[in-house]
Amino acid sequence: MTEHHKSNIYFQRCGNNLNANIISLRKLLDQLEPKFTSSDKVGIKIHWGERDNISFLPADYTAEIVNWVKSMGAKPFVFDTTVLYSGGRRDAESALKTAREHGFTPQKLGCPVVIGDGSDGTDVIDIPSGYKHFPSVQVTSLIESTDAFVIFSHFKGHLLAGFGGAIKNISMGFASRAQKQRMHADVQPQLNTDKCTRCGKCAEICPQNAIEFHQYMYPNFELDKCIGCAQCIGICPQVAIKVQWNVDKTTFQERLVETAAAVWNIIHDRTLLITAAINITKECDCMSGENPRVYQDVGFWGGYNPVILDRATIDKVGEQAIEKAHSNLPWRKQFTFATQIGFVKQ
Ligand code: SF4
Ligand code: SF4
What we know:
Layout: E1 9-13, H1 18-31, E2 41-45, H2 59-71, E3 75-80, H3 92-101, H4 106-109, E4 113-115, E5 124-128, E6 136-140, H5 142-145, E7 148-154, E8 156-158, E9 162-164, H6 166-174, H7 177-184, H8 201-205, E10 211-212, E11 220-221, H9 231-235, H10 249-267, E12 271-277, E13 280-281, E14 293-295, E15 299-303, H11 306-317, H12 319-326, H13 333-340
Parallel strand pairs: 2-3, 2-7, 3-4, 7-12
Antiparallel strand pairs: 1-15, 5-6, 8-9, 10-11, 12-15, 13-14
The structure holds iron/sulfur cluster (2 copies).
């Protein structure tokens, strides 16, 4: 394994159809130095799109990366984590169903498809952060059990972040459901009794014993004890505790970057990044239905630091693509905050 400088960036322009694009991706892969060795277990982080989303990258690109990893004797698997909101990815069962419907099957990819936070969202661990917003962040336990990672990101717009690339794929993509909620809001749990089945799981997971629960009664949240960790929101199988989205837009950018930086601290020396600026849509692949394109297809990037890779992608695509989609969002804060906390040097 050769040491590559974090600022090394590789680019391959795409073609004008799927086959040509796969050839471009292969050319890019051939230029990259893998961060894994033969027999390593390699987690390929992707996003297979929300149910009814039509802008996600087809599974053919991921399959090409899987082939490349296998050609070096390593053992790849593909993964993503579950999300906060109800839909086609709230739990492992629905997420895997959506993956299958979008063509991301073990047969097509040639490797297992895994839910990073496990069957019920509890395969997660706390890792240190301590920059500005979080003393620790909660992420998939794969961060401990996986030898190396390939982060395969789809560059496009995003309704809160402005754009989504490698930083967001590592941040939201590795985060537990509770950590996703912490990034989106300062939590004050609010129960919807119409949805609650009184299963008691929220009370079991609460680290503060802030949820009083007796069989035959709805849980009672003692907010003076609550520390806003959001684990009750993350665990609830019925989405009966309100998911909150009301954080200040600049704070959200910082929290997104901080979570990515905490993950990167742990995985940076065993992780390779690939970004595709193809199907550059206004919103991310979490959205279902129509999603207009805001820029033409550009190509594939490879690199070794997510901040540098996202900056290089935007420099090539042009800031106007993001401005056209989300002129009111402080997306540049991702870069200033990343510089401020030293993320760009890792
Ligand atoms: S986890 Fe959800 S469904 Fe279960 S008791 Fe708590 S709020 Fe109700
Ligand atoms: S947010 Fe955390 S501390 Fe507050 S009630 Fe929910 S689980 Fe308990």
